[in-house]
Design brief:
Largest interface: A-B, 43 and 43 residues
Shape of chain A: globular
Order of helices and strands of chain A: EHEHEHEH
Number of helices of chain C: 9
Number of strands of chain A: 4
Largest sheet of chain C: 5 strands, mixed
Radius of gyration of chain A: 14 Å
Strand order of the largest sheet of chain C: 2-1-3-4-7
Bound molecules: flavin-adenine dinucleotide, iron/sulfur cluster, FE2/S2 (inorganic) cluster
Radius of gyration of chain C: 20 Å
Distance between the termini of chain C: 55 Å
Strand order of the largest sheet of chain A: 2-1-3-4
Helix content of chain A: 25-40%
Strand content of chain A: 15-25%
Chains: A alpha/beta, B alpha/beta, C alpha/beta
Helix content of chain C: 25-40%
Number of domains of chain C: 2
Order of helices and strands of chain C: HEEEHEEEHEHHHHHH
CATH class of chain A: Alpha Beta
Oligomer: heterotrimer
């Protein structure tokens, strides 16, 4: 039941060493994907405070992506293990508050996975299109 | 006031062909704090850079955003432009509008332009919150500490010393040499271990840049790269090494005999001794546990069992240079080092826990290392292979590989890597010592990765007639003078029974005694087996999480001699590269703690992968966290867990990231 | 057996007489003659006023923080949930176990004392309680219970919310959050909210807008609860003190429930266990980012 003409807004927090580089590679390889994502570079997925995710939703994001290196490959070895724990708890909590868990994604994209990055953004965008705008909740965001 | 300039790069048509540059410029001019927006054909080119500089100067800009390719490409280039324009290089943000915009959204120019504008806006929001950062220059001590003097540590010390830097080499035992000194001949070339090791040991002793501290241990390490403060305990030998000439009368005449550790318990040594004849330094030590005179001194009537021993002191009486010094005490050496190489090696698995091999109770079931000592002409048997039980020559020898390796049940699931090869070597040497010997080898797989290794292992079977049986041993027991070895030939699928004169267990490699404690002293991480962890298993094999501390050799995991030598050399190269700098510059993009906010929960201390956070007690008695900037690698884990937002990461501060989030959509 | 009151008074008197203790905190009868209020006894004489019964509702562990940097020791009368709070504070290095004497009371449940008259009804926290015995004590008074009567019901109300549709959940919480007046009574009463400066009070960066509006309130409540994830010990003081009856416990216990499922962790049970966000297991399956 995709809503006509609805273009979801995605906030993407990408770790500098893997996922940001993976997104760059998608560019270098000219893999096109939907333009719905806006990207914020962070040193590591472990830098992403849940507050940033909540604030992004408050800003009107329909979906938030946090992406880092594959487990075991974090530039700082352990950062993504910590971020995984944090978001494993945050995602169901946001869902409980009414922000469906499909609106949050934690993905591991390596520097060589340009294809994976573009796939993630494409599928996330189409999922969010189906889900529709963040209804009543988008406080401060769109009506 | 922030005076921000936005520069948009066309990148030829790479960006301009998709993104409407005029639209981006138009939008940028309206963004808060932006004074000027300009474009360039190629911002990174010389004319582009000159133009940016000129615009900065004309408009008295203090912050700059460049909309261009990925910051991973040219952030550094543009930082240099900032410096040339007289600005702090950290007042710069790069908006990625090529890799993450024009190259991926070329099918929709309008949407691409909208995204480019948002990316520029995000960068403008961030740059307004940028702070001036200044790299720190810290002096460095160009002196290296090498811990452990097996072949790895020896190689590292020699290489650093030859590069012209002073090295202190610390060895726990009374002599350097490590396990390699115990070996007889080495695979795959069968050259004699001592012949290739001894010259290196002597070179260590004579090298003007090397200070050798044997029978010594590292007690404490603090500080950081370039500036480690280390405490080393020099244990009392009771022999003045300055006077001792190594003549050897003392140990020749000492009446006390105890099992010789260096010979793996075969044969004896004296209570004043050098572990082996080629020891470096050739200075004996008194074994305080067994020396009769020490026992006499420590005797407490009524408490110590037995009679008071005699006041022996024979060594003291015979020593031609009066080198014995009963007053000598442990001495603590405190020194500064710029880098540390850890090369503390390994120990072998203790098979006495394995009931199937006789639990260490059958005298003729020996370890691979014991066999090495028997082969050796200066060893306990004068170079003859003899059964410990009755001193006869064994004719049938069973060698068992993977003892304490690839054994989930005993908590040793990993492969020890060297045993297949040394077992093959030992079958050859057994045959060479006595052509009548027949060797049987029980194995799981034969692993012979390495130059000339496979050929070597084949020779053992084809030329030296060793019979290889695939399978595990289920039991060994004594029957008369012989040993009965029960096992299984899993290729043939049938049980086998061999009556043998001797069994040699290829005991696997384990982390050395005290490895975990030493790691803790240096805040290094180790795996569940206590092997030290390298910074990256492929790309940083000798580095650790802590800058300036390197690891090499068997302390990281099972390794043979060629690998150990390569790693020792690699660690030395890293040290030399570090020491080629006059000062160390530290990255200013690190974490720092606001004392007023910090509540001392120390969550940050627990998550920091680099142990870069310590505690300090403020004057009001409160304990707070403090970041050691030299250790911080700027991962940003700490600010993400800090509830009161007391710790922040420069360059990616809460203020900057929140500004970016707030700027996400216009 | 001696009465609870007497056992507490005797011990408190002994501690205060010893000279090593600056204060013993517990409860005394309130002026209404029925309910209880906190008592901070500084002298052996004051110790005579201690009481304990089912109206001793406050979680006094909250006040231990005030003694953090004091040289002398303190004593505290603590119910099971309060002892979990003490463990939390020990784990977070806010109090020194060696300077603390815990008079643990095995609890019979606490009666609801709202803004009106005292009731005979058990508090919500007691109806969902999973640990009716002190998890930490130097002296134990009252009767040790072999099992928790309420443990099975601990998360029934949470599960009920989980069962609703996203729209319903959204509507449910927006209704509650929109009523929040941001008085921060919940924070003031919380044993875990001891930051010098709370993120919500920070002006730079401004995490939560100053305006009392649904959007800002949502951020406040989301992060307040999340900052207590793996830390909330379910004493439910926050909900008790909320003047507009926001069911804060439903937020806290959702996180507790998931924390138990994902990390097998429950706050305050053992001060020596590393909290869930400060550790990890490599192979664990968490349902997010596996
Ligand atoms: C039976 C057997 C046969 C082998 N045959 C061969 C062969 O033929 N060819 C081959 O290539 N390899 C062979 N090996 C492997 C070889 O022994 C190792 O590869 C090599 O010796 C490892 O060198 P290392 O310096 O890393 O460790 P080690 O030799 O273990 O040296 C470590 C040194 O550090 C010291 N030390 C430890 N802890 C501390 C501390 N805390 N403070 C100070 N000093 C400390 C130790 O006393 C020791 O001197 C064999 C091994 C065995 C068991
Ligand atoms: S996490 Fe924050 S409050 Fe806790 S010790 Fe670290 S800096 Fe201080
Ligand atoms: S940023 Fe990372 S490395 Fe630096 S102190 Fe914080 S946790 Fe440690
Ligand atoms: S650096 Fe990529 S997740 Fe840590």
């Amino acid at each position: 039941m995709a809503i006509d003409g609805f273009e979801p807004r995605i906030a993407g927090f990408l770790c500098n060493w893997c996922s940001y580089a993976g997104a760059d590679l998608a560019g270098t390889s000219r893999m096109s994907y939907p333009s719905n994502i806006r990207i914020i570079r962070v040193p590591c997925s472990g830098r992403v405070d849940p507050l940033f995710v909540v604030k992004a939703f408050q800003q009107g994001a329909d979906g938030v992506l946090v992406a880092g290196c594959h487990l075991g490959d974090c530039h700082y070895n352990e950062g993504n293990f910590y971020s995984r724990r944090r978001f494993a708890l945050l995602a169901p909590f946001l869902d409980y508050l009414g922000i469906q868990k499909e609106r949050f994604r934690l993905e591991w994209v390596s520097a060589s996975e340009g294809r994976k990055f573009s796939d993630v953004v494409s599928s996330f965008t189409s999922d969010l299109k189906k889900l529709g705008p963040r209804s009543i909740l988008s406080p401060g965001g769109r009506e | 006031m922030a005076r921000i300039g936005v520069f948009v790069c066309h990148c030829g048509t790479n960006i301009a062909g998709v993104v409407s540059i005029p639209a981006v410029l138009e939008a940028a001019k309206k963004m808060p704090g932006v004074v000027v927006a300009a474009d360039d054909k190629y911002s990174c080119s010389d004319p582009g850079q000159a133009h940016i500089r000129a615009v900065i100067e004309q408009n008295k800009l203090n912050r700059v955003v460049i909309g261009s390719c990925s910051p991973r490409m040219h952030e550094f280039t543009f930082r240099k432009v900032m410096v040339k324009a007289g600005l702090n290089p950290y007042f710069l943000e790069v908006a990625n509008i090529r890799e993450q915009v024009s190259w991926v959204h070329s099918n929709d120019k309008e949407k691409a332009t909208a995204k480019a504008i948002d990316h520029v806006m995000i960068a403008v929001a961030k740059v307004a919150r940028d702070e001036a950062l200044f790299p720190k220059r810290v002096p460095l001590t160009k002196r290296a500490l090498v811990i452990g003097a097996g072949i790895t540590g020896i190689q590292a010390a020699l290489d650093i010393a030859s590069a012209g830097h002073p090295v202190t080499l610390v060895e726990r035992e009374a002599s350097i040499g490590g396990h390699m000194a115990q070996l007889d001949k080495t695979f795959p070339t069968l050259d004699c271990s001592a012949c290739i090791l001894t010259p290196k040991m002597v070179e260590v002793a004579q090298h003007p840049n090397i200070t050798l501290l044997t029978y010594s241990e590292v007690r404490q390490v603090s500080g950081f790269v370039g500036n480690f403060d280390v405490e080393i305990v020099k244990k009392a030998r009771k022999v003045d090494s300055k006077k001792c000439t190594g003549c050897g009368v003392c140990w020749l005449k000492c009446p006390e005999k105890v099992p010789a550790e260096f010979n793996e318990g075969l044969g004896t040594r004296e209570a004043i001794y050098v572990p082996f004849p080629q020891a470096v330094p050739l200075v004996p030590r008194v074994d305080l546990e067994n020396c009769r005179y020490i026992k006499y001194l420590e005797y407490m009537p009524g408490k110590t069992p037995g009679k008071r021993p005699m006041q022996c002191r024979i060594c003291e009486k015979l020593c031609p240079v009066q080198a014995l010094d009963w007053e000598q005490q442990d001495e603590v050496v405190k020194e500064k080092f710029g880098a540390i190489v850890v090369a503390t090696g390994y120990k072998t698995f203790d098979p006495s826990v394995c009931g199937e091999y006789g639990g260490g109770k059958l005298p003729d079931v020996i370890s691979g290392l014991q066999l090495e000592r028997m082969f050796n002409s200066s060893g306990p048997t004068g170079g003859e292979v003899l059964r410990p039980s009755d001193g006869t020559h064994p004719k049938t020898v069973v060698l068992v590989s993977c003892v304490g390796s690839r054994d989930e049940q005993r908590g040793r699931p990993y492969c020890s890597k060297i045993c297949c090869m040394y077992t093959a070597k030992q079958t050859i040497l057994l045959k060479e010592h006595d052509p009548e010997v027949q060797c049987y080898v029980f194995y799981i797989d034969i692993r012979t990765g390495g130059k000339d290794y496979e050929e070597f292992a084949r020779r053992a079977q084809e030329e030296y007639g060793a019979l290889y049986l695939r399978g595990r041993i289920s039991r060994i027991y004594e029957d008369g003078k012989q040993l009965v070895v029960l096992g299984e030939d899993s290729l043939m699928g049938r049980p086998v029974e061999i009556r043998a004169d001797m069994v040699v267990l290829a005991t696997g490699v384990e982390a050395n005694e005290g490895a975990a404690e030493l790691a803790q002293t240096m805040k290094l991480s180790h795996d569940v087996y206590d092997f030290l962890t390298e910074a990256h298993p492929k790309l940083k094999p000798v580095e650790t999480q802590t800058d300036g501390i390197l690891v090499a050799g068997a302390c990281v995991g099972p390794k043979d001699i060629p690998e150990c030598v390569a790693q020792g050399g690699a660690a030395a190269a890293k040290v030399s590269a570090l020491f080629s700098q006059e000062m160390l510059t530290s990255d200013p993009m690190v974490a720092s703690v606001d004392n007023a906010r910090c509540i001392g929960c120390l969550l940050c201390v627990q998550v920091c992968p680099y142990k870069a956070i310590d505690t300090q007690v403020l004057r009001n008695g409160r304990t707070v966290a403090v970041v050691n900037e030299s250790l911080c690698r700027a991962c940003g884990l700490c600010p993400a867990v800090c509830r009161p937002k007391a710790v922040n990461l420069r360059g990616f501060t809460n203020q900057q990231l929140l500004a970016e989030v707030n700027a996400l959509w216009q | 057996m001696e009465s609870l009151d007497k056992q507490i008074r005797d011990k408190a008197r002994e501690l205060l007489t010893s000279g090593a203790f600056a204060c013993v905190m517990g409860y005394e009868r309130a002026t209404d003659g029925k309910t209880a209020r906190p008592l901070f006894a500084y002298t052996p004489e004051e110790a005579e006023r201690f009481v304990f019964d089912q109206y001793c509702t406050h979680n006094l562990a909250r006040y231990l923080i005030n003694w953090r940097d004091n040289k002398k020791s303190v004593g505290i009368v603590a119910k099971p949930c309060d002892t979990r709070a003490i463990n939390l504070l020990i784990n977070e290095k806010q109090i020194d176990r060696s300077k603390l004497y815990v008079i643990g009371v095995a609890c019979q449940g606490i009666m609801e004392v709202g803004w009106g008259a005292p009731t005979e009804k058990l508090e919500l926290r007691c109806n969902t309680c999973s640990e009716p015995n002190p998890v930490l004590h130097d002296l134990l008074v009252g009767e040790f219970k072999s099992e928790s009567p309420a443990a099975a019901k601990a998360y029934a109300d949470v599960a009920a919310i989980e069962g609703k549709s996203a729209e319903e959940r959204d509507g449910f919480w927006q209704e509650h959050f929109s009523r929040c007046i941001r008085c921060y009574a919940c924070r003031q009463s919380c044993v875990g909210c001891y930051c010098q400066e709370c993120f919500v009070d920070e002006l730079d960066p401004l995490w939560v807008g100053i305006k009392v509006a649904p959007a800002e309130n949502t951020v406040w409540h989301t992060i307040r609860a999340f900052h207590l994830a793996g830390r909330c010990i379910s004493c439910n003081e926050c909900e008790r003190v909320c003047p507009v009856d926001i069911p804060l416990s439903l937020l806290n216990r959702k996180l507790e429930k998931d924390g138990l499922e994902l990390f097998q962790f429950q706050a305050g049970m053992d001060a020596s266990v590393t909290p869930p966000f400060a550790t990890f297991k490599k192979g664990e399956k968490l349902g997010t980012g596996d």
